[in-house]
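User: My instructor asked us to take a sequence, write out its structure as tokens, and then describe one feature of it. I'm not sure where to start. Here is the sequence I was given:
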Amino acid sequence: MRQRNIAKEDRSRLVSEALKKMKGKISEIASSHVSSRVLQTCIKHCTQDERNAVFIELRPHFISLASNTYAVHLVTKMLDHAPKEQLAEFISSLHGHVASLLRHMVGSLVIEHAYNLGNASQKQALLIELFSPELQLFKDLVTMKETRLEDIISKLKLQKSSVLRHMTSVLQPILEKGILDHSIVHRALMEYLSIADKSSAAEVIEQLSGSGLVRMIHTKDGSRLGMLCIKHGSAKERKKIIKGMKGHVEKIARDKYGSMVLVCLLSIVDDTKLVSKIIIRELEPNLKELLLDQSARRLFLQLLHPDCARYLGPDDLASLSLSIPSLKNKGVSDDGEAVAEDKVSDAEGNIQLNEGGKKDAFKRRQELLVNSGLAEKLIGACSESVEGLLRSKYGKEVIFEVATGGADGILHPTLDEKLQDLHEAIASIAAQPKLEEAEEHILEQFHSSRAIRKLILDCPPFASTLWEKAFKGNCAIWAKGHSSKVISAYLETSNSGVRELAKAELQPLIERGDLSLPKPNESAKEE
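Assistant: Let's start with the prediction itself. The structure tokens for your sequence are:
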């Protein structure tokens, strides 16, 4: 049955014969080390009617099978192939057993699998059993309108202290056993921290701070838990978290949610020597690849331009600003001193999050970016991969921030010479002649043309270099298509020196109608 070269009809016949012989003994066979594999193969290749018959026979044994080392694979395979009605029936059969199965190393896999397959109301049904004994007994007390634990407590007039005690009794064994990988556990912990008192919250942070946190930060809630541990943890706990990431940093950086934990870490931890030694050193060997990665680039962008709404979405910024209510306004610096956590906005509307430590935010960035040698390697990587980065949807953002010297001029004046070399490298590629058979020119390609236009508007030294190397005397060639927006940037820039450079050559093109300046609202959309 498991051979790849077997005919479909022959396999179906063998599967049907096997299931007929197993009828009445399927629950016993599912628990066997050897025969459970045969049953899994049958479920994979049988018809839906045959699968339904197996489901009906297994229905009374779901709970015992869910915690069996061998049967668990059959149960998860059944769920993968189950229609909506069967999935709903299975999730309903778990009622009253969610907490006990989550404490079981094998049973927790089934709960997590069902949680991930379920719809919003089914996920809610599984989750609320962890909140209170009343909700275990009466599953219809809560509607979908009350998704947050605080709302449920308020609606049902439950005692917060009673809910907290119950959740502690449920979650503590799970944490002690190290069952940390599951998204339902992460969601439950987030809800727990939303009502926990100071001592309970601090205890959970202490338990999570370490190598186990790496197993949690691949989910949205797990990532938020990681950020809360960094934000509210002591210097000792932050050190354990960073050391626990050793050997996994690149994998974490490439993960959508894990990368945000590293962004938070770079923004908060005052021990820049430890961060440089473990986090930054592991990122440097594959720097060129990471700059092009949608998630990993955010680490470098956070150092170059912190909390910028162009690079971090509203959800990311909201995650960075989260805090535990009982510990709110008491971020802990790396020397143990409590620091108020305020949030302000700068002139560009970028959210400035409190860094959680005593060290000045600019100084921390400088130590991580410039003093560690990362900035020099960043400029080097950009210079070597200019064209690839400019043409990339994600890489263009990194090369733009590096070429401009970063927010607050963090790369100036230390690396001015290196930045000039990068400007020359970009200008050299832009100065290459336009060939019809070749790949789309860098001044006409969608992403690169916009990046170069923005550099002209925001970086006068680059604009001057590019004019001398590429545009002077050649503007008529680039007056059409995407490239026209690049050269028109010379007349739109706020820098009078750059405008004067190009005015004499561009004005005749505008008067002849060969070049048109974009309307203000159009250029705003592009930026």
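For the description part of your assignment, you could build on this observation: Strands lie at 331-332, 338-339, 343-345, 351-353. Try explaining in your own words what that tells you about the chain.
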